[in-house]
Amino acid sequence: MRDPCKENSAGAVFVRLGGELYGRLEEFRRRQTKIPHRSEAVRSLIERALTVSDNAARDVSARPSP
Fold this sequence. Notes:
Radius of gyration: 16 Å
Strand content: under 5%
Helix content: 55-70%
Largest sheet: none
Mean pLDDT: 87
Number of helices: 2
Order of helices and strands: HH
Low-confidence stretches: none
């Protein structure tokens, strides 16, 4: 069976940010060597968060049961 998550597919996601979260995104963008477009900054942050989440899940599943 095919896994749709592993396929190269794309979709549009509209996100409205405000206040502190928007400010943090702008700070992140300014800290980059070359300031990325907001959409690229959001993609980068999502990829980082998912990588950390995946690694944490692997670490938990690799621990021996008590």
